Amino acid sequence: MMACHRTARTAMKPLLPPIHQFHRHPQAPWLELRVSLPSPHCFRLHAHDEYSIGIVDAGQALFNHADGPERVHPGSVVLIEPGRWHACNPDEVTHWSYRMLFVQADWVHAQLQQPALRFPARALHDAGSSALVHQLCQPLTATTDVAAHTQLLLDFLRTHTQADAHPQPASSEDRAVHHAVEQLHAQPQADTTVAALAQAEGMSASRFIRHFKAATGVTPGAYRLNLRLNGARRLLAEGAALADAAHAMGFADQAHLQRAFKAHHALTPGRYAQGARPRA
After folding, report:
1. DSSP state of 24
2. How many whole angstroms separate alpha carbon 108 and alpha carbon 162?
3. Three-point CA angle 56, 45, 230, nearest 5°
4. What is the tens place of the pLDDT at every residue in 215-239?
5. CA torsion sign, 55 to 59 to 62 to 68?
C-alpha cells in the first residue's frame, strides 16, 4: 500500500514546461519564435537560414561571431544574418535564458526590396532596442494583432539593417570556395566527399580545406552538416516525419540526425517537431 501511495504522489506532480519552446502562427508563416527557459545549455558554432533577432532574459553569456566575441547580459539584443556562424553560451556553468525570433530571409528581402541585408551592430545594449525586441519576441496568439507586429518588425529591420553588397571572389582560391559553397547549398544531402569537391576545383584536399575554412570560418564537413540540420529543421516544422527528414537531408539514419540535432540545438528533433506546429 505504501508503494502505491508513493506512486500516486509521484504521478500528481505538475508537469514542468519544456526548457526550449517553439511558437509559430498560421497568419505569420515567415516567423518562428524560440523561448529558452533558464538552463546551462551550450551550443556549437552554427549558422541559420533566417535573420535572427534575440534578447537575453536572464544570466550572462558570451556571444561569439565574426566581429566578436561580445558579452551579453539581461536586456542585450543579439542580431544575426543568415549564414553567419556564431555561438552564444553561458558563462562557465551558470544558467541563462533567452528568446530568439527567426525571420525567413526571402520574406525579409521581398518586404524591404533588398537582395541581402546586414546588421552593422550584432549586439545592442540600449534600453530602447531591448524594449522593442522584447515586444517582437512575444508568442503570437489568437488575440495578437499580427499586422501591427509585422509592421513593428519591419520598422525595426529598416532601422537596424543596411544593404549588403556581396563582393565578387577575387582570387582563384576564392572562386573555388564560392563554387563549392554553391554546390553544397544546391545539394546538401549529397554524399560528395571533400576530396571530390577539392578535385573538381583543381586543388588538393588539404589546400581546399585550408582556403574553405579561411573563407567561411568552418570546414567543408561542418558547413554541410549545418546545411543538413537547417534543412531537417525546416522539414520538421512543415510536418515531415523524423525518418523522412533524415533521409531527405542525407543523414545515415534517424539516429544520426537525432545526435547531430541535439548537439547543435540542445533538444531532440522530435521535441522540436512537437513545439514547431503552428498555433492559432
Report:
1. B
2. 12
3. 90
4. 888 999 999 999 999 999 999 988 9
5. positive
C-alpha grid cell, residue 274: 512537437
Look at residue 238 and give its three-state secondary structure. coil
**What's the distance, Cα to Cα, between the start and end of the chain in Å?**
45
Buried b (16+ CB within 10 A) or exposed e, 158-170: eebbeeeeeeeee
d(Cα 261, Cα 125) in Å, to the nearest integer?
31
Over the chain, what is the mean pLDDT? 88
Report the 3 state secondary structure along 157-178: HHHHCEECCCCCCCCHHHHHHH
Of the listed ranges 88-92, 130-134, 168-172, the least confidently predicted one is 168-172
Taking only the tens place, the pLDDT of each residue in 180-208 is: 999 999 999 999 999 999 999 999 999 99
Nearest partner of 77 among 110, 38, 124, judged by Cα? 124
**Residues forming a β-bridge with 100:** 34, 54
Could you tell me the sign of the dihedral formed by the alpha carbons of 14, 18, 19, 25, in that order?
negative
Residue 197, all three cell numbers:
569537391
Q: Are 38 and 21 in contact (CB under 8 A)?
A: no
The verdict on pTM exceeding 0.70 is: yes
Distance CA 148, CA 138 (A): 13
Query: Coil, strand or helix: which one is 31?
Result: strand
Pairing of strands 77-80, 51-58: antiparallel
Instruction: Quote the percentage of the chain above a pLDDT of 90.
Output: 66
Contacts (Cβ under 8 Å, ≥6 apart) of 260:
225, 228, 229, 251
Q: 53 and 79 in contact (C-beta within 8 Å)? A: yes
